[in-house]
Design goal:
Layout lengths: L1 H18 L6 H15 L38 H6 L4 H37 E2 L4 E2 L3 H41 L14 H12 L9 E4 L5 E3 L15 H9 L1 H4 L1 H6 L12 H11 L1 H24 L9 H5 L1
Antiparallel strand pairs: 1-2, 3-4
Length: 323
């Protein structure tokens, strides 16, 4: 509301000055009208640096999070552009949160597609008459597709961490220019451990043509070098949905307004994914328990079923695994 009132006031003033201008000032009138139209467009301010001064007097983080379609793009999605931007920090915070949310949703979509691909491949590869995983061309093609999806997810993972580093550096420079000591400059190495952990989680899958028969057991059964069953680790990618839930939780999406009210100065901790999940649990307790119970049982039962059905099919049918 404050933003709209200031924009309306400045737009009215510009239009009035344009109408009161002297003759022969058509160029000035046109420029004033263009600036008034630009002001009415709202907070997409990265396209016009001259509008930065409008926000200097606003209370920080008084706006709602950006409600922009993920099919649209913003120049500030790029880590280099974000780091070099001279827009006020409240606006950059909004753009940063929107970009991170978009990247997390994109990762979750790729995770869902990869899990569906895995399930199709495992069901096609398993021969229910012979109770063995067979090597089939269509299954190798699906595993190659899964490898492509994995590579794309690893690239998007790096892109997200690179953007997080850019956001941390922007905060560091902001504190430095205020005359305070921000400590050591952020770099990618500060995020290296969580990045490597996530990299390993996402990278686990059964590559194409790695299931060649390598050695024979005493029973005569020939084991593959890398079994299709290794693909069950693709289910670990469901952890990416935690970030999506976090980003859509009001307490997290509006956390900067909480920080503006001396939250940290009074001993409050950083609002992270755990705080967001607690809010979701308190607001939708029954739904959360139901989703966690049904979802985890269904997923873990299928993982056990896939891993054991070629060795102990009677004991490890899917219904038994669920039970």
């Amino acid at each position: 509301d404050v933003y709209k009132r200031q924009v309306s006031t400045q737009s009215t003033g510009i239009s009035t000055n344009a109408r009161m201008g002297k003759g022969g000032k058509g160029g000035a009138t046109g420029a004033a009208a263009a600036q008034a139209a630009s002001l009415r467009r709202g907070p997409s301010l990265f396209s016009d640096p001259s509008l930065v001064s409008i926000h200097d007097d606003l209370t920080p983080h008084t706006w709602e999070p950006i409600n922009r379609s993920f099919f649209k793009s913003s120049p500030l999605e790029n880590s280099a552009v974000f780091l070099l931007s001279e827009l006020p920090m409240p606006i950059l915070h909004m753009e940063y949160d929107w970009a991170i949310k978009k990247k997390n949703v994109r990762m979750a979509v790729w995770a869902t597609i990869s899990i569906i691909t895995l399930i199709i491949e495992l069901e096609l590869a398993f021969n229910r008459d012979k109770l063995v995983y067979e090597k089939r061309d269509v299954c190798e093609g699906l595993k190659a597709l899964l490898s492509f999806q994995t590579v794309m997810m690893l690239y998007y993972l790096y892109d997200m961490y690179d953007y997080m580093v850019a956001g941390a550096k922007k905060e560091w420079y902001h504190i430095l220019y205020q005359g305070e000591n921000p400590g050591p400059s952020p770099s990618f190495k500060h995020h290296m451990i969580p990045f490597i952990v996530e990299f390993v989680f996402i990278a686990l899958h059964a590559p194409a043509y790695f299931d060649f028969r390598y050695w024979k057991e005493g029973s005569g059964h020939v084991k593959p070098f890398v079994s299709d069953k290794l693909g069950v680790f693709v289910f670990l990618r469901v952890y990416l949905f935690v970030r999506v839930i976090r980003d859509y939780t009001p307490v997290f999406s509006r956390r900067r307004m909480i920080y503006d009210n001396a939250h940290k100065a009074e001993g409050g901790k950083e609002i992270r994914w755990l705080t967001a999940l607690k809010q979701v649990y308190m607001a939708h307790t029954t739904l959360v328990i139901g989703v966690l119970a049904i979802g985890s049982i269904a997923m873990l039962a299928y993982m056990i079923h896939v891993a054991e059905r070629d060795w102990q099919p009677e004991q490890f049918g899917y219904k038994n695994c669920v039970w």
